[in-house]
Amino acid sequence: MGISRGKIFRYLLSILFVLSLNFLIIQFLPGDPLVHLVGEEAYIHLQARNPSSLAELRAKYGLDRPIHERYLTAMADILRFRLGWSYQYGRPVSHILFYRLKWTLLLLGPALFLSAVFGLFLGCLCGRPGKNLPDRFMTPLFLTIYATPAYCLAFLLLLVFAFSCDFLPLGGMTGSAQTGRVSAGDVLRHLALPLCVLALHTTAYLTIIMRSTVRQAFTEDYVITAVSKGLKPRVVMLRHVLLNALSPFVTAMAINFGFIAGGALLVEVVFSWQGMGSLMYEAVLARDYPILSGCFLILALSVIGANVMADIFSTFIDPRVRDDAVAP
Predict the structure, then answer these.
(1) Distance (Å, rounded) from C-alpha 74 to C-alpha 81?
(2) Residue 144 vs residues 149, 152, 221, 324: alpha-carbon distances, Å
């Protein structure tokens, strides 16, 4: 059991394409990164009085070399886990990314878990055939929530809690910066609002997907046969409908992982959560190309990794996928 060789080759080709596209996008961004490295006034002064200093800086950071040389160097550095040096922070990019990534995972991990659990349950609840009151009320609500961008939900939640609740902070990651002590409870209070926004938005999408899959499963012959045998509705749902609906549910979740992660990055900016989203926003403003390249690389590889995990999971729960994987 596993992934077929054809899929492995396609995934490797996708990784190469992502790495190449990531490099090219960063190289053609407007603006000179040296402006933010030395400051706007110093840049203008050096450009007018001492252009040789700017040339030395470009040579130091490899900005003066031809693009094909920079491309080959960038690919070799990625294989050695060297992602460059940040112009803005003056530190290795890998150190900055790993520090910010843990805060994004702290937000994204629980949000994905909660949305998967509630999406499965509510999707099965709304997908039952017949007169279904939960479906009549929850499906329009979830469609509205999913049609609203995650950052808009974040702004709405900020407006609500700004006037109604003083217990939950409206931004940041900790309120104890002055004392130098960071407690887990304080971090969790700051995590509550962005986690609620992301979990709610993702739950709405997964519930809609699961509802459609369950509705489709109830029209299949094997489910109709199980119902005609007089099996209890709970048994039909768990043994026949849910098991066959899990594979497309996980696949849809993996395919849209990039949108889910992208929503998390925007929510981070709204709530000033110092994760990958805030880091990318700061890097765009500062034209910090190595940071941007590292962020895009992690996001793209995460999407590919999510699809690989979905394929592996599908081979375990769906015999049809497993047979296709081992077929010559």
Answers:
(1) 10
(2) 10, 12, 33, 38
Query: What domains can be seen in the chain, in order of their start residue?
Result: 93-326 (1.10.3720.10)
| Chain centre to alpha carbon of residue 163 | 30
Write out pLDDT tens, residues 3-46: 667 778 888 888 888 888 878 877 776 667 677 666 667 778 77
Contact status, residue 214 vs residue 241, Cβ threshold 8 Å: yes
| Tens of pLDDT, residues 263-293 | 788 888 888 888 888 888 888 887 777 888 8
172: Cα within 13 Å, side-chain hemisphere: 9
Q: Which two tokens stand for residue 97?
A: 């990314």
CA distance 223 to 241: 7
**3-state SS class at 81:** coil
Residue 285 token pair: 């403003």
